[in-house]
Structures are given as structure tokens and as C-alpha cells.
UniProtKB/TrEMBL annotation:
Residues 28-172 form the Nudix hydrolase domain. It comes from Faecalibacillus intestinalis. The keyword Amino-acid biosynthesis does not apply. This is Putative Nudix hydrolase. The lineage of its organism: Bacteria, Bacillati, Bacillota, Erysipelotrichia, Erysipelotrichales. GO terms for cellular component: cytoplasm.
């Protein structure tokens, strides 16, 4: 059973907690950490996408953020991001390697596996620079079935035009794009 902090609109814990399952049944506001892994290859910026396993409770089999996860009660965004990177992709990083690009607030409702899923969250968006090959990632907890690198601009267009099966919000790629412009 995963216990999450209930948070306010800015992502600050309220002092109350909720079971993850209940949060998604009732649409209770909670926190997540999203990490977009980037690298430079042949003078182009590439972004790593993970493919969610078919067993995931939402968006099974879709391409998604490099690594993402819920923040357990009592943890902070950075701690959780580091843990998720190890659990999902088998990579070990320090919290200081994560580049904070800001928060994103969103809500959606959809049917998965025959049940209504209400997601209501504040996500901290991070960028992580890691020049690894696809074979270097290890899918420790079987939440991820594969990863692939795409040139950032191609990924952006493919998501915008729905050319790949994905669950990526273009607003998140806009946040990464904004970060890249100031680099």
C-alpha cells in the first residue's frame, strides 16, 4: 500500500495523507516527480522515452516521460526522483544532478482496465543529462518494457501530432524546450 501526502495547489503537503488507490479513485491532489533524461549526440539534443509496461494502472503500453513516480508521504521531489530512476531504469544519480525546471499542475479522468482513474497532481519537472545507451538501462521493477532515444525536435513533433502511442503532455515538453533555449 502506497501512502501519499495530500498537497495544496502549489504542491506543498497539507499534513494529511491518502492511499494512492484512493487518491486515484477520488481525484485527490497529490505530488509526482517527472525526470526527462537528455543527451547530446551528433550535435543534436536527444530525449529518452520509456515505454510503460502493459501491467501499469494507467496508459499501459504507451511511451512516456523518461522516469516518473508518485512522492511517498514524507519524501521530497528530489528524493523520489532519484528513487524512481533506480527503480524504473536501474540508474543511480545524485539529487544534485537533477535540474529543477518548475512545477506543472494537471488533472484528468480516464477509464483503464475497466475502472475510472482520476489523476489530480502537482508534478515537479526535472531534466537530467545522462549519455547512456539504451542497453545500459535495467528495468528493475518491470514498470518499463523498453526505452528509446529520439531527437528532441522529432519527439516534440511526434507527440504534438500524435504520431506515436504516448501519454506525454506537450506542456511538459514545452517546459523542457524552454529550459533548452536558455542553455
Amino acid at each position: 500500500m502506497e501512502i501519499l501526502d495530500i498537497c495544496d495547489e502549489l504542491g506543498n503537503p497539507t499534513g494529511k495523507t491518502v492511499e494512492r488507490k484512493i487518491a486515484h479513485q477520488q481525484g485527490i491532489l497529490h505530488r509526482t516527480a517527472h525526470v526527462w533524461i537528455l543527451r547530446k549526440k551528433e550535435n543534436k539534443i536527444q530525449i529518452l522515452l520509456q515505454k510503460r509496461s502493459e501491467q501499469k494502472d494507467s496508459f499501459p503500453g504507451c511511451y512516456d516521460i523518461s522516469s516518473a513516480g508518485h512522492i511517498p508521504a514524507g519524501d521530497n521531489y528530489g528524493q523520489s526522483a532519484v528513487r524512481e530512476l533506480k527503480e524504473e531504469l536501474g540508474i543511480v544519480v545524485r539529487e544534485s544532478e537533477l535540474i529543477d525546471c518548475g512545477n506543472r499542475r494537471f488533472h484528468f479522468e480516464e477509464i483503464f482496465h475497466g475502472r475510472l482513474f482520476k489523476d489530480n497532481q502537482v508534478s515537479k519537472i526535472f531534466v537530467l543529462w545522462k549519455d547512456l545507451e539504451e542497453k545500459d538501462f535495467v528495468f528493475v521493477d518491470h514498470e518499463v518494457s523498453e526505452v528509446k532515444w529520439l531527437d528532441f525536435e522529432k519527439c516534440y513533433q511526434d507527440v504534438k501530432e500524435n504520431k506515436i502511442n504516448h501519454c506525454i503532455y506537450i506542456e511538459e515538453l514545452d517546459i523542457v524546450k524552454k529550459y533548452l533555449r536558455v542553455q
